[in-house]
Structures are given as C-alpha cells and as structure tokens.
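**User:** Once you have settled down, spend some time on the protein underneath, comparing sequence with structure tokens, and judge whether sequence predicts the tokens.
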Amino acid sequence: MTQKPTILVSGYGSWAKAKNNPAALVAERLGQEEFECCNLVAVELDVDTNALQDNVNRLLDTHQPDGWIGLGVSGAAVVQPEMVGINWRHFSVPDVTGAYLRATPIVENGPAAYNATLPCVEMVEKLRANHIPAALSFSAGTHLCNQLIYTLAHTAEQRGITLRSGFVHIPQSPENIAEKSGLEEYGASMDPATSARAIRLCVELLAAKLAA
C-alpha cells in the first residue's frame, strides 16, 4: 500500500449496560488525536440491531476504510480483542429500540461464523509489552458486539472487498462502576485514558500490517 491506510474506529454509544459508554468516549478521544501511521476515522454507533447493517454500509461507502476496529464495553478487567463472530443474536438485555431477540440469526442461512481479521494475537502481545492488561477472547457474546464482527466480515465478503476488521472489548469506566456499586456489588474498570492508549497501540499495529 503506497498511501496511508484508512482505519475506522467505531465505539458503541449508550445502552442498557453503559449509559455513558466508554467505547464511544475512547473513539471520540482517538478522533481528536493525530496519527502519522494512518487516516483515522472515529464514529459512534447506535446499539440498534436492525440499523447496524445499514450503518455499516453507509460508513463503508463514505470512508472506504482498509481496517475497522469496533469497540464495546465488557465486565472484564482486561482489554480483549475478539477472535470470532457467530451468526446468532440472543439478547440478555434489549437494544436501544427495545428489540429483544432470542436465538435469531444475524444473516438467514449465512455462514456459522467468521474469524476476525485483525492481528489479535499481536495486539495482546503489544498491549502487555506496554503494561496494559490484555487477553484474547473467543466469545464476543450474542449482542451487538458479536453482531458487528459478523456483519463486517460478511459484508466485506459479499462486496468482494479487502477489509481487516474485528472488535475489541474494553473494561467499564471507574465512573460507571462507582455509580452502580453497592456493599455487595462491584466490577472491574479501566480509566478511559488507559483504554484509549490501548486502542491507539492497536491502531498503530493494524496500520503497520496494512502498510506492509
């Protein structure tokens, strides 16, 4: 690739498990930074299952990215690049429209799963080398985080385009945990500044792979 690659970073917005979603905050922060390695596009995605395909199509048409890193929040204590997306939507909580799907395919008669095409193993190694806790994940759940992995891969396949894509879960923010913590309720968290540094390292690694 002779010119700088374009990398899109999408962060999911408010939903039932994160009114102030650190994923959207991290994407916004990165969008305000300078990247010598790539042209970075940062967007916030609605947690809307039925609008996701249209939003993916729109963003692909508008920005024509070479890589796409989706961001969402999890209850884990580490940054987790996701290895695979499966063809199921099975919600424990509704999306922002109130949709509450049970055992519903993302794509009717579509492939059972798609592997992410981000350099997930190397992302974990790079983050750990920079003293950021990270681990591979082989299950992105069955909500919209998983749906984005699957939708990106399936759409790229259908369009016949090359797109290095996948998803990274980041921990909750300390503020979100503090809001809901009681005497017997707590959870892991990571400062959004650290999460943003982690995703910046992931972007730089992906850009190097795309430019090679």
Notes: The mean pLDDT is 95.
